[in-house]
Amino acid sequence: MSAPCPSQVNYLACGNRPVLGDHVPVLILYGGEDRTAVTRTPMPDGLFFPVPDLYKAIGGTRKLMFCFEGSGHPMVWETTAKTVHQFSKLWFRNGTVDGLGSGSCFRELDGNLIQLP
Q1: CA atoms of 30 and 15, how far apart (whole Å)
Q2: Which of 8, 59, 71, 91 makes an SS bond possible with 27, Cβ 3.0 to 4.6 Å?
Q3: Which residue has the higher pLDDT, 13 or 66?
Q4: pLDDT digits 0-9 by tens, 47-70
Q5: Is the pTM of this model over 0.85?
Q6: What is the mean pLDDT of residues 5-15?
Q7: What's the CA gap between 13 and 7, in Å, rounded?
Q8: Contact yes or no for 10/59 (Cβ under 8 A)
Q9: How buried is 15 (Cβ within 10 angstroms: 0-12 exposed, 13-18 middle, 19+ buried)?
Q10: 59 and 20 Cβ atoms separated by less than 8 Å
């Protein structure tokens, strides 16, 4: 058994196949106003965690990310709750949300999706 690659722990047996985004499809939903999971500047303890960086760090292509306009950290208890649950169900059942199987989008309050680079 080989040790995990120190800089590439997402890769199976230090090979070229990512686990996350390949064997394990990833859906990331976060609020545009979230200041708990989305730190824009380093915190006093040195923690710096912008969610888009997490998305970029996932090596596979089976990954999808949505940023919800006007939502904070407790998205499942906010006005976005039904949409968050719907997106999750679609992802688990079909591996797609609104016909998208990969990429990142900004979801406006009216439901309009804007694809991000």
Answers
A1: 30
A2: 91
A3: 66
A4: 667 888 889 988 889 999 999 999
A5: no
A6: 48
A7: 12
A8: yes
A9: exposed
A10: yes
Q: Which residues of 107-117 are buried (b: 16+ CB within 10 A; e: fewer)?
A: beeeeeeeeee
Within 10 A of 35 (CB to CB), how many other CB atoms are there? 10
Rounded distance, CA 109 to CA 117, Å? 20
In the numeric block, which tokens belong to residue 99?
A: 């016909």
The domain ranges of the chain are 25-116
The three-state secondary structure class of 102 is coil
Tell me the residue type at 20.
Answer: L
Q: How far is CA 15 from the centre of its chain?
A: 23
DSSP 79-101: TTHHHHHHHHHHHHHHS-BTTBS
Structure tokens, 12? 């199976």
DSSP states of 19-76 as a string? TBTTTB-EEEEEETT-SSS--SS--TTS----HHHHHHH--SS-EEEEEETT--S-GG
